[in-house]
Amino acid sequence: MSSLFKQLRVHQIFGANTDVGKTILTTALVRASALKEKSVFYLKPISTGPIEDADDKHVMRFGGKLANKIHAECLFRYNEPVSPHLAAKLMMPGDQSQLIPSDENVVNSIANRIRAHAGSISKHAHMYVETAGGVHSPCLSGSTQADCYRPLFLPTILVGDSKLGGISSTIASYESLLLRGYIIDAVILFQDQYYRNWEYLQPYFAERGIHVSAVHRPPEVLADPSDNFKSTEDYYNSITSTSEENTIPKLVDYLDNCHNLRLHELESMPRRTLDTVWWPFVQHGFVQSENDVTVIDSAYGDFFSVCKRNILQEPNATRSILAPEFDGSASWWTQTMGHAHPSLTLAAAQASGRYGHVMFPQATHLPALNLAERMVHDGPGRGWASRAFFSDNGSTGMEVALKMALRAFSLRHGKGMDSGAKKDLGILGLKGSYHGDTIGAMDACEEGVYTCEWHDAKGYWFEPPSVGIKDGKIIISIPPSISATPKANEIRLPSLSSVYDIEGRLRSSLARAYTLYIERTLEKLEKQGRPKLAALVIEPLVMGAGGMIFVDPLFQRVLIDVVRGRRSGSSSSWSGMPVIFDEVFVGLHRIGMESAGPLLGIYPDISVNAKVLTGGLIPMAITLASKSIFEAFLSDNKAEALLHGHSYTAHPIGCEVANKTLQLLDDLQTSDDWKAAQERWRPLDGTERTVWSFWDPTFVRELSKLPEVDEVMTLGCVLALKVKDASTGYTSQSAQTLLQKLRQFDDGGIGLSVAPGGDAFSVHFRTLGDVAYFITSLNTSPSVIRSIEDRIWKTIAR
Amino acid sequence: MSSLFKQLRVHQIFGANTDVGKTILTTALVRASALKEKSVFYLKPISTGPIEDADDKHVMRFGGKLANKIHAECLFRYNEPVSPHLAAKLMMPGDQSQLIPSDENVVNSIANRIRAHAGSISKHAHMYVETAGGVHSPCLSGSTQADCYRPLFLPTILVGDSKLGGISSTIASYESLLLRGYIIDAVILFQDQYYRNWEYLQPYFAERGIHVSAVHRPPEVLADPSDNFKSTEDYYNSITSTSEENTIPKLVDYLDNCHNLRLHELESMPRRTLDTVWWPFVQHGFVQSENDVTVIDSAYGDFFSVCKRNILQEPNATRSILAPEFDGSASWWTQTMGHAHPSLTLAAAQASGRYGHVMFPQATHLPALNLAERMVHDGPGRGWASRAFFSDNGSTGMEVALKMALRAFSLRHGKGMDSGAKKDLGILGLKGSYHGDTIGAMDACEEGVYTCEWHDAKGYWFEPPSVGIKDGKIIISIPPSISATPKANEIRLPSLSSVYDIEGRLRSSLARAYTLYIERTLEKLEKQGRPKLAALVIEPLVMGAGGMIFVDPLFQRVLIDVVRGRRSGSSSSWSGMPVIFDEVFVGLHRIGMESAGPLLGIYPDISVNAKVLTGGLIPMAITLASKSIFEAFLSDNKAEALLHGHSYTAHPIGCEVANKTLQLLDDLQTSDDWKAAQERWRPLDGTERTVWSFWDPTFVRELSKLPEVDEVMTLGCVLALKVKDASTGYTSQSAQTLLQKLRQFDDGGIGLSVAPGGDAFSVHFRTLGDVAYFITSLNTSPSVIRSIEDRIWKTIAR
C-alpha cells in the first residue's frame, strides 16, 4: 500500500513514451539530490535489454564523485530489449511461465526496498523509482504498469515527450495516470527548440496545478566512448549545478516542498475535519481527539490507506505514515469489486464524456435503457418485473416503492377512504426493519433507535424468528410471542442448507405454527380496524441496519403466502397487498444470491436495489415494479402519474457504472474463488440448491463456540458476530470493545503478505451494538479472508 | 453536433502517436471501400508540412484506377511540418493571430463537408476523416484534437502504435478518447514481428468490446521514386485485395456493420424504453407513440444530440438522423458548465482512481474536507455556517435540514411535549413551495399537485406577493389576503434593481403592511394553538417547481425578521425558530448570486445546496448548519446524534466534481460574458448592488408586451414566461401549446451557426402548467442565448 515516510521522499517516474529521456532526467534528479547532501536511492524495478545498457548502471556510471551518496539497484532484469511482459515470456517460455513474477511479487519487492531504505537512513533522503517504457507498458505479468503499480500509490513525476507528437503522448499519459488517481507532482521534459512542446505544456499543466520543468537537450552521442562519457558528464554537470537558471535543482526543491506539504496536509486534516464536517450517525460529543479521525489518503482493492498519526508525530519515525486498513464493512456495504477498480472508473469516465448528465423524463439514453432491461429481464426482476424506476439511493428507492404500493392499494381498496385515512395506511413488516433515513422510509419501520421528531411509524411489525449458529449448532430462535411453550424457543436444524430449503420446510409443523400465528395476528388487527395495512415490506433473509438479523426464511415465506391468500407466484396481478422486497443490502450477490425470490420460491410486486448496483462508486437506486403496479398509475390525468423524480434521475454515469458492475458480477459468478467457496459450503447430503458464504464454515462454527460469543451467522460476504453482553442494543459498546485490537496497527506480522505491498495492516470493522460484522467485497481474495479470520480468531481467543 | 447519415458512413481516424501509419492505413481503408463499389470521401481537416508530402495527395496518388470513386480534400493547410497550433502561429504571427481559425470554424467546416457529401450521394458511401498527429495533438487554436472535435462526436478508429512503447501510447490514447465519450469502433495497427504489440492489444481490446485489426507492415521506402511507387502500389494491392486472410476489407465490412447496428439501435430505443422504463413525473398514459420519446445519443455543451425518428424512417434520407436540441431546462436545472465538460470528467475520474468510494463516518478524505471548508467558510455558508453535512440530493438534503431544525426547536421549546406533539410540529413557509419528493420534504409543503397517499403537510403557508414584468412594467403583485384594498393589488417599481434593494424598501409602507399582516397571522395561529410552528423554510427569491414564482424579496426578509423577533443577523444562536434556506435551485449562481443571504441582508440557520453543486454530473447535496444547530445534537448519548446517513455519503467523486465546479465558477464570475450581462442590467441610477440576468433586458420587456404573454420574469440563468390562459396550474397545456414550435426540427435556418457543427437545432424547454421556462448553463455563450431569444420571439410573435 502507499508508503509515505517522513525522512524518505519517494517518487516514481513514468514516461510519456519510451525513448523520451526518462533515464537521463532521472539521473539528473539523482545527481541534483546527491548534490544537496542527500542519500539517494535509485530503483529500477524492471529492466529489459543488455546489462551494459541498463539504466541502473547508467545512474551509477554518472554518479561520478557523488557515487558514495547514491545507491542504485534493479529488481528484475531481462536481456531482450522489448516490453517487460515479452522479455519475461522469452526468458521463461511455455511451462516455465508460472515462474514469471506476479504483480503482487513486483509490488511487494518494490515496497520492501522502500521500507528497507527508509529504515536505513538517519536524515532526509530521496528515492526515485524509474518505471519502464510508457505509463501503460506491460509489466511482467502483462497488466500495464499504471495498473500494476497502483497499490503503491507513489507520488509521480511524468517525463514528457519533446518530439513531434509528444504533446499528445504527454497529455494522454497524464490522463491515464489521473484515471488511476495518482498524485502527479511534476512533468519534466527536454526543450526541443523546433517543436517547442514545453511551451505548450507549461501553461496546460499550470492550469491543472502541475509544475513543468523543461531541461536542455543532451548532446549528440559521440562515437568515441571516452569522448561520449566526457560530453555526457559535462551535460550532467551543466544541468545539475545550482546556478540560477537551472531547473533540475529547483525541481528537487519543489519535490521536497510537495512532500512536506503532503505531510502537513495529513497532519492538519483531522483538526480541520473536526472543525467543519458533520458526520452521519456519529455522536460528535464522543469525538474530541484528532486521533479519533480516520484519515483516508487513498484506497485500493479491499484496503484503505490510512494515516497513522502516532507515526506522523514521532520525531524520527522510520515506519510508513500510511498503512493499509482492511475495509471490513465494505464501506457501508457498498464495495463490490474493491476500491478504485479501473473498469468502473473508465465506465464512469466514458458516460461522463458522452453525456455528462441528461434529463430523463420522456427521454432515453443507452446507459439507462441497457440497465433497465438488464434489471427487469435478466436480473432481480427476472420472471416478475415489468418496469424500472430510477432514483438516487436505497432510501429514495424505498420511498418510491412505498408510493407505488400505497397508490396501488388505495386504488383497489380505498373507495370512500378520505385523505386522512390514506395518510394512515400502514405497513406490515418485521421488528428490526430498516429502509433508509428519509422520513417516508422511516415511517415504514418501527420507532426505535433510528428516529427523529417527525418519525411516525405506520403499521404493524412482527417479531421474527431468526437463524444463527450457537455453540456450533444451527439454531432457529423463536420469539416467545410465536412459541406458546417456552421449551420450543430454539429449534436445531442439521445444516444451513436445510434452513434455506423452503419447499421442504413448508410442510413442517413450524410452518403451520407460523401460519396460524400470522393469521390470528392479522385477524386481530383487522378486528381492531387499525392500522389499516396496505403493503408488506421486508428485507429478505437479512435485516442489516437492525443488527444483522438473519430472519428465518420460512417465516418470511409463510408471511407472504398468508398475506397473498396463498396466491401462486405466477399470477400477473398483486393480491392481498403489494409485497415490497427491500434488497438494497441483500441484493446482487451480497449474501450469495442475486435476489432472494428464487430461494423463497416467491416474487415481490416491487423491489429495490442500490449499494452493490453501482459497484461501490456512486449513489443510485432502482425500484422494480410488476405490470399491475405500473398500471395503477396509468390514467388520462397528468397529476396521477408517479410524481417522484430527482434532478439527476438515471444519471448516465451511475447507469454505466451499474452496467459494468453487473457485467463484472457475471464473470465473478463463474470464477474459481466463488466456486471454491460454494464447494466448501456444499452440504454433505449433496442437495443442489444451497446457500454459501465467502467465510470458512469451520472458522464460523469454531467462532460460535468461543465463550465470549453468543451467536455467529454468515451468508455470502457477510459475517455477523453477536457478543455476550448484558446491555444489548444500538448503544452497546461490547462488540467494539471485544474487537478493538483489530483496528490497532501493530499486527505482530500476522498476514503480512495479503495487504498490497506486503504491509502490516489493521482491520476497520463496524458494530451495531452487541453485533460486530464483517463484509467483504465480492472479489476479495480467499487469502485476505483467511487472514481476517485468523485475526478475528486470535483477537477473541487470545 | 454529431452527424449520422443513413447512406454515408463516417469515421474519424485518430493516431496513437504521430508516425504510426495513420495515412497508410487510412489510404488502405479508402481503397478497400472503393473496391466495394462505394464512393469514398477522404477529408484531412488540417495538414501541416510541404504539400508534396500531404496526406490527401498520398490518398489520391494511390487511389490508382479507383480514383474516380475517391474524393480527397484538405481544409486547412500549413507548410511547416510541426503541430498545427505551431504551424498556424508561424504562418500568422503576432497581430495576425486573430486570423487563426477557431475550433468552431474547424468543426463547422468539417460538418459542412460531411453534410455536403451526404447530400451528394445516391447510394451507400464511406467517409474517413483523418486527424493530425496523436489524439491530443493541438488543433489550430491550441485546444487538443480530442477536445476540439468532440462536438462532432464521430465514430472513431484508433490507429495503434506498433513500435516499442506502442502498447502504452495506444492504450493511453484509447483512454483519452474514452474520457471524451467517443464511440471507438476499431483499433488498427501494423504487425511488427519483433515487438508484437498487436498480440497484446487484441485480447486487451477484445475484453473492452473493441475490434483490433493487425496489418502487414509496408515495405521499406526505396530511393528511386518510381520503384518506390511501384512497391507501395503493390503493398496496397496486397492488403486491400478481398482474399480470405486480408484484414482491411474485413474491417470495412465490420465498420459497415457497426454503422448499421447503431442505426438499428437508435430505431429500437423508443420501443424498448416504452417497454421497460418508468419515467419520473410522466403520465405514461399520454406517451403511446415511439415518436414521443426523445432519444439522446450524446450531449455536448448546451445541446443534446437527439435522434430524428422521421429522418431515420425516410427511405432515402439525406439529412442527418442526429440533430442538436438546446437543453432549455439545463436538464432539470442541473447543468452548470454544459454537458460533458472534460474538466469535470477528469475530476470524477481522478477521485474514482484514488478512492472509489470510502465510508465517511468518523473518517475524512481530501475531496470531502476541501468541499466542506469551501462551502462553510468561502461559499454559501460564509459568515454564518459552521458545519457541512453531506447527503445525496436536494430532497435528502432538505430532510436533513428538517431533522436539524426540528431537533433544535424541540430541545429548546419541547419540554413536556410528548412524541405525538413532536410529530405534529409544523413548518412555516410559502404557498407554492417545493422541497423534493421524499415524503419528509413533501410534508414541509402544502398538499397540492406533488402529493401521494402519505403526504401529510404540517404547517402554515403564506400566499406570497410576487415580482414580474407585465406589459413592460416591473410589478409586485400582492395577493388579496395581504392587501385590504383591491386597488393596491399591484405595485409598480421603477426597475428590477429597486425591487431587490431590500434595505431601501424596509422603510416603505409596504414593508409595514407585510409586517403587520405576518404578525397578525402568526398571532392568530398561536391563539389557535396549532399548527405548532418549529421552523421557517423558504426557497429564497424564486420558488422553482411551484411554477417559477419570483417572490417579493421584501416579503421574505420581513417574514424572517418577524419570526426572529428582529434579531440581528450576526447573533450566534438561532432565535424564534430555525430558518432554513432551500437553495437547491437558486443557489450557486443559478439566479445570479452565490446565495440569497447577502441580498436579503440576513442569513439562515440551515441551508441546502445541490444541483449546480456537482456541475450537472452526478447527485450530491450539502446541508450547512450554524454552530448553535450543530450543538443541539451534541450529547453523551449516541442515539441523540443526527442519525441520518446514506451509503455513499460524501462520495469522493461527487465531492471532487463539486470542488472543480466551484473553481470553474470562480473563473466564470470574472469572465467577459458575465461582466457584459451584468453591465446590460446595471440600472441607470448607477447603484452598485443589483440583480442581473443572462437574458437581454430589452427582449424580456418586449416579450412581456406580447398579447399572448401574461407575465415574464428573469434572474441569472432563468427566464420564466407565463402564458395567458383561463385554466392555470400544473395540468395546463397552454404554455406547451404556445411554444410547441420550438421543439420542432425545421428551424428555417435561424441561428444555424450557434449549435456545434453549425447544425439546425431545436429547443427542448419545460413547462409548469401555464409557465414555460428556459434555463441556461452558467457558461452558455451570449450568441446561443440571443439565438434562443430570437426563436422564442419569432415563435410567439409570429
UniProtKB/TrEMBL annotation, chains A, B:
CDD domains: DTBS. One of its GO terms (cellular component) is mitochondrion. It is found in: Mitochondrion. It comes from the Eukaryota. Pfam families: AAA_26 (PF13500), Aminotran_3 (PF00202). The keyword Oxidoreductase does not apply. The lineage of its organism: Eukaryota, Fungi, Dikarya, Basidiomycota, Agaricomycotina. PANTHER family: ADENOSYLMETHIONINE-8-AMINO-7-OXONONANOATE AMINOTRANSFERASE. This is Pyridoxal phosphate-dependent transferase. GO terms for molecular function: adenosylmethionine-8-amino-7-oxononanoate transaminase activity; dethiobiotin synthase activity; pyridoxal phosphate binding. Its main location: mitochondrion. Keywords: Aminotransferase, Transferase. InterPro entries: Aminotrans_3 (IPR005814), Aminotrans_3_PPA_site (IPR049704), P-loop_NTPase (IPR027417), PyrdxlP-dep_Trfase (IPR015424), PyrdxlP-dep_Trfase_major (IPR015421). GO terms for biological process: biotin biosynthetic process.
